[in-house]
Amino acid sequence: MTKLRRKVYMIAGYNTISMGTGRKEFHPKKERPGLEEYIKEAGQAVLQMIGGAKNVDESVIGNFIAARFNRQANMAGFVPFIDEGLKYKPAIRVEGACGTGALALVTGIKSILAETAEVVLVLGVEVQNTVKAIYGADILAAAGWAKERKDGHAYFFPGKFSDRSKAYAERFDKEKTRQAMAKWFQNAIENARLCPTAQEYHNTTKDLIACGMLNPNPKGFVDSLNVFDCSKVSDGASAIAIVSEEGLIRCGISKNDAIEIMGFGQAEGDITQTPADLTQLDTTKAAVQKAFESAGVTKEQIATVECHDCFTIAGIMATEAIGFAEHGKGIDFVLEGNTARDGKVPFNTTGGLIGWGHPTGATGVHQAVTIWEQLTGKAALNQIEIKPERPYALSINMGGDDKTLVSIVYKKA
Amino acid sequence: MEYSERLQNVTVIGAAGKMGSGILLLTAIEMADLSLKPENKNRQFILNAMDVSDEALSGLMKYLRAQVLKAAEKKAVQLRSVYADRTDLIDNEEIIREYVNDVVAIVRPTTLIESAYNSTLIFEAIKEDPALKVKIFSQINQNSTKSPWFYTNTSSIPISKIDKEANLGGRILGVHFYNPPAIQKLVEIIKGENTLQELVDFANLYSKNLRKIVVPSHDFAGFIGNGHFMRDAIHGIREAEALQSKYSFAESIYIMNKISQDYLIRPMGIFQLIDYVGIDVCQYIMSVMNPYLPNEDLHSDLLDKILASGVRGGQNSDGSQKDGFLKYEKGKVVAAYDINTKSYAPIAEFQSKCDDSLGKVPASILPWKAVVGNPKKDDLFKAYFTELNQTVSFGAELAKKYALRSREIGLNLVKDKVAFTENDVNTVLLTGFFHAYGPINNYLD
User: Fold this and answer.
1) Is the backbone peptide bond immediately before B180 cis, with ω within 30 degrees of 0?
2) Number of H helices and number of E strands within chain B?
3) Using one digit for the tens of pLDDT, what is the confidence trace for A28-55?
């Protein structure tokens, strides 16, 4: 991928609360907001910041699987529901499992590049607390190959990443792998505690490492992950506007409040193939390399990363896929504190999927919103220092078991 | 007859009752799990759910389906391998639904006692009426060609007595579940004088497969559980009666309930526990036990009186608590009964007065909830009871007396050869009554 042919910016990000267990407001038996409320809240918040629906040329809505969680398809039809001003304007729904959000972002970016739009409203949404976790696992398994479901674990995706974590631990260092996973969990929760919309914002557990170190319970769950290694079931939406130079002016937004897309990489793995090496995220690696090439930057110039830590082990493997650590050394990289908020490259500064939450179709958009906040100085208590010599940020959003990948490089405009 | 064979045709008598439904649920799941093993593919498994009311049986089947669904959701991980060969079942949802159907398909609701004539194992959980139990067991035994084993859930009637009167030739064993059987871990196993050892061995294996904790008890009316509980209740009642020279009836009930719950760090106060079990059930168990206790009068006029006034306790069919000595709102105690006015007096009206008169509370006191799962609870109890011992207050005196009496009851159960060991007594109170510490301890020495 070469340099982008036109300047593309992101502005006006917004996240709803990531709702689910852990939030004080959450009670499994009480009525909760649905797709409609989340879409409206996030969509309207962005419209308000960019001068209203009249400024929007088209919209992209990302959603993984409302057809099963909420008996709802044809999601693009909710775009005009956000604001009447969006009626009769183009809208498209995209899907790529947990990588849906970033697919929505690149769909918007491509519209700007194609010059078919100057302002694109991009939104991701998922409402998953409609079924018990054991049935939710069936629904989320659709992110894998359906023909593998029968032989898969009851908790299909935790099963997949349990296999990865087991292979990694056995090949490199069992004890250290467990410690690094616990450390990843601790970082995630500590970051989430600073972010009022995070699902773990109310978490008050004193000894996070002790939780992370708990032995897995293969009888009730999976072989090599404990529940703290896993992102939770979440409801929520995130939205952001993707605009051209002209779009910025139209929306009346200063470059001070915008970030620029420096490049991006997309990569797809074959859903019918099992990973060649369980200890590596190959497709992730390919996408990140493309993004770096496209942006013309190196990992040394990255100030912060939002990676797809659906499971702690995926976070650790991402540090290797990016190239921060050699194969097998991601555990050391994490244990040395490099990914913590005061470390060399803070990862997932609002908690990531484990701490902030993982409303699947919204996650990729949430990552972009966090980066927009960090690079424009709007991250409040989550704010980290962005040094001038390393001004770039990187996001990685993954669909399925390292299948549908989008990686984006950003910089303050 | 090996384990699976013994469980191929089983009857639960009194299956729609509080205890029977739990035993039915656990047995149905155990039998279904056996039936799903490859080696049992060609075997039929039948579980007769017998009760006297068709209406109650309909309710039972609904309850069973809902409970099996919950159990299946919890063990979905194992169920996927159980149904691994079934290519038509892919999602957890399909597998769980199939399992529920398989469990329920084993169960045959019936009001006819004749159904039990083909059973090799009979669980009985009818009311504590020795004559009725003997009548039913005799009838089945005379009409069956299977020489069935009888497992009775009695909590108070001596097993040897039933054995002799029903002429069962030692094919009877006390298998006493605690309420509710699906949740409580404890099973008391009581061998009669002539009980065949095979029955004990099977019961041990069956309980183990149900992941229960087995405590053997001698065949003495009341066994360990009620042997402690009924005497503990009598102590609480007598203490409350004694308080009535200074306090109203409702106040006395409140005080002794508080002492036995808060001061003794138990999950429930004694009057709440009596209400939970049912005042009528407690009275009945005492009446069954009392004739076997020559040196003791296990009887309370107060229970007779309160039952005569129409207050019974026990639970509603949805599991919620009925009013008894205490009145409950959303599971919380809000008022205490006054036998003199035959009405409930709100606790808020006299709580502070009573609490004041109980005096200083040891600073190291903790609620039961905070201690029960604590790995360092032994240290916490040592510290608390040491402080309680040094505390000079009316409340502390009542609490010490209560704790020492509870210990004495426990020690007597061993001395009188009801329990085999002190440890067994403690295990029963820890697992069957959810106490956080055993009554036989040296915390107050």
Assistant:
1) yes
2) 18, 11
3) 889 999 999 999 999 999 999 999 999 9
Q: CA nearest B73 in A: which residue?
A: A134
Q: What are the chain A neighbours of B77 within 8 Å (beta carbons)?
A: 153-155, 218-221
Same domain for A113 and A90? yes
Q: Quick one: A124 and A198 in the same domain?
A: no
Report which of B412, B442, B384, B411 is spatially closest to residue B264, judged by C-alpha positions.
Answer: B384
> Cβ separation of B92 and A154 shorter than 8 Å?
yes
**pLDDT value at position A1?**
53
DSSP class of residue B316?
-
DSSP count for chain A of H helices, then E strands: 14, 9
d(CA A365, CA A406): 11
Mean pLDDT of A16-33: 96
Are residues A183 and A77 part of one domain? Answer: no
Contact A126, A69 (CB under 8 A): yes
Q: How confident is the model at residue B30 (pLDDT cuts 50, 70, 90)?
A: very high
A175 with A251, same domain?
A: no
Residue A380, phi then psi, degrees to nearest 5: 50, -130
Inspect the interface and report whether the beta carbons of A135 and B92 lie closer than 8 Å: yes
Q: Crossing angle for the helix pair A174-192 and A156-171, nearest 10 degrees? A: 130
Structural domain including A350 reads 152-231+262-412
Question: For residues B156 and A342, what is the distance between their CA atoms, to the nearest angstrom?
Answer: 66
Q: Which of residues 131-170 of A touch B (CB under 8 A)?
A: 132, 134-135, 137-138, 141, 149-150, 153-155
Look at A219 and B87 and tell me if their CB atoms are within 8 Å: no
CA B348 distance to own-chain centroid: 31
CATH number at residue A243: 3.40.47.10
| pLDDT grade for B53, boundaries at 50, 70 and 90 | very high
Cα–Cα distance between B122 and B47 in angstroms, integer? 10
Residues A227 and A237 in one domain: no
ipTM: 0.93
Is A398 in the same domain as A350? yes
Instruction: Supply angle C-alpha A178, A184, A186, rounded to 5.
Output: 105
Residue A1 lies in a domain: no
Please tell me what DSSP assigns to residue B263: I
Count of structural domains within chain A: 2
CB atoms within 10 A of CB B434: 17
DSSP, res A274: P
* Structural domains of chain B sorted by starting position, each given as residue range(s) with its CATH number in brackets: 3-217 (3.40.50.720), 225-432 (1.10.1040.10)
User: What is A95-108 written as a DSSP string?
Assistant: -BTBTHHHHHHHHH
Looking at the structure, tell me whether residues A203 and A277 fall in a common domain: yes
Dig out the tokens for B443 from the structure: 């915390």
Structure tokens at B247: 């306090």
Q: What is the rounded distance in angstroms from the CA atom of residue B76 to the CA atom of residue B94? A: 11
Same domain flag for A298 and A250: no
The DSSP line for B177-229 is E-SSTTT--EEEEEE-TT--HHHHHHHHHHHHHTTPEEEEE-S-TTTTHHHHH
Ramachandran area for residue B322 (φ above 0: left; ψ -120 to 50: alpha; else beta): beta
Chain segment B244-301, per-residue pLDDT in tens: 999 999 999 999 999 999 999 999 999 999 999 999 999 999 998 999 998 999 999 9
Alpha-carbon gap, residue B20 to B26, rounded angstroms: 10
